[in-house]
Amino acid sequence: MTVRQVIEGIEPVKLQAALEGRTVKQAHRKGKHMWIEFDSGPCLMLHFGMTGSLVVKGVKSHQYMSFKVDGSDWPPKYWKVLLELDGDVSLAFSDARRFARVRLQEDPASHEPVSLLGFDPVLSMPSLDDFSTSIKQQKRSLKALLLDQAFSAGIGNWVADEVLYQAKLYPEVKANALTDAQIEDLHKAIKHVPEAAVEAEADHERFPPGWLFHVRWNGKKKIPQLNGNAVDFLKVGGRTTAYVPAVQKAPSGAAASQPKGKAKGKRKAESEPESAEEAEEEEHKAEEVKPVPRSAKATRGNSKSASASQAEPAATKTKKRQASKAKAEPKAKRKVSKATVQAEDNEAEEGSDVETGEEESGKARKASKIGKSGML
Predict the structure, then answer these.
(1) C-alpha dihedral, 269 to 270 to 271 to 274, nearest 10°
(2) How far apart are CA 179 and CA 50, in angstroms?
(3) pLDDT tens figures, 316-349
(4) Which of 39, 100, 198, 369 is the most core-located residue (most Cβ within 10 A)?
(5) In this structure, how many other beta carbons lie within 10 angstroms of the beta carbon of residue 262?
(6) What pLDDT score does 195 carry?
(7) List of E strands, 62-174
(8) Measured between alpha carbons, how far is 28 from 43 in angstroms, rounded to an integer?
(9) CA distance 219 to 276
(10) Bridge partners of 243?
(11) Measured between alpha carbons, how far is 204 from 64 in angstroms, rounded to an integer?
């Protein structure tokens, strides 16, 4: 049996010693990576995986569609790192399923994996011109492209589906087959969906009522409907993909990127609604970031085009709220008075995922077959 280790590259006792006595200077984020910068020494790098969460004692935790974080007990269940700061502030990083990662790293923005990430839709959305240039160089399906963290950092499976629904684009259409108008719609949706989710503070009950998000998590139940249209599911690049055929029409001819070697009937049999649990299982698969040619990346600039106007109200509200909070609560650089790191053993936690020898053997056989067939 193999149990995933959350603390990576350093022993728990050494991580504790490296954190204690240091003063928190600033917090940073890009895509699905977050790091805490201190007054000296390396940064504390956090990758949240599927169920990782940062919890502040006495502050209500975010509640997600697929998992809940209970901060009523302290420290919270499945905690991995606990920081006690000056001013009676306590911070915990928890993860039930051990897909998260905690490590120390000097200047994360300049080193892998962060340095390999593409633009962040919330922090550094490229201009429409730069985005258009990049899209026209891509031969992959739109869904596969959006999930590539080296192209755009932070977009996961449900966000990609929501973006394509809002832009009225078929998931398997090739990126370089889009018209200028479609590229503009895609650019607008990539900016709007993450910003709207951030504005709602990840509370799905506050997401716009017309979003595809609300009807995609019904598992094997009856076919869901959205605004009177049926929602269908297919596999794109091995990922369950929700879309609305009446809105996201499949193009004819070579523009559609069909899976090789699969008959339509067989693909239809795979097209089932995904549950929140299935979505979690898939979400960790595309986390590895691979370098892409610089010419294929959109420039990391802030967009000033008119096409981003749809997202401006949410962004403006967020900035005003942040400015108001900053004025009421002056920033304080808090010192870590005590750090506690959970020692990880080889026993699986309740709710965590493990791989048995039988499962590992099966995966090895499958990998061997794939390798022999030349599909790698």
Answers:
(1) 140
(2) 35
(3) 444 444 444 433 344 557 888 778 887 765 444 4
(4) 100
(5) 12
(6) 96
(7) 79-85, 89-95, 101-105
(8) 10
(9) 8
(10) 232
(11) 7
User: Please, what's the b/e burial string for 51-69 (b: 16 or more CB within 10 A of its CB; e: otherwise)?
Assistant: bbbbbebeeebeebbbbeb
> pLDDT digits over 140-155, tens only?
999 999 999 999 999 9
Q: Residues 288-303: pLDDT tens digits?
A: 555 444 444 443 333 3
Q: How far apart are CA 327 and CA 297, in angstroms?
A: 38
Q: How far apart are CA 39 and CA 26, in angstroms?
A: 9
Q: What angle do CA 196, 199, 202 make, to 5 degrees?
A: 85
230 membership: H or E segment, kind and range: strand 229-230
H/E segment holding residue 18: helix 12-19
Tell me the CA end-to-end span of the chain in Å, nearest whole number: 26
Give the per-residue pLDDT at 118: 96
d(CA 140, CA 173): 8
In degrees, rounded to 5, the angle at the alpha carbon of residue 129 between the alpha carbons of residues 168 and 202 is 50
153-177 per-residue burial string, b: 16 or more CB within 10 A, e: under 16:
bbbbbbbbbbbbbbbebbbbbbbeb
How does residue 364 score in pLDDT terms, banded at 50, 70 and 90?
A: very low
Q: What is the mean pLDDT of residues 205-227?
A: 84
Q: Tell if the pTM clears 0.85, that is, is over it.
A: no
- Residue 262 — very low, low, confident or very high, per pLDDT cuts 50/70/90? very low
Q: Are 243 and 165 in contact (CB under 8 A)?
A: yes
Reported residue count of the chain is 376
Give the contacts of 241 (CB within 8 A, at least 6 positions apart): 143, 157, 160, 161, 171, 233, 234, 235
Rounded Cα gap, residues 153 and 160, in angstroms = 12
Residue in the block written with tokens 């492209």: 145
Q: Report pLDDT for 72.
A: 73
C-alpha closest to that of 147 among 135, 160, 165, 161:
160
pLDDT at 86: 87
Residue 138 CA, distance from chain mean position: 21
For residue 174, the 8-state DSSP code is B
The SS3 assignment for 334 reads coil
What span, in angstroms and rounded, lies between the C-alpha atoms of 289 and 149? 6
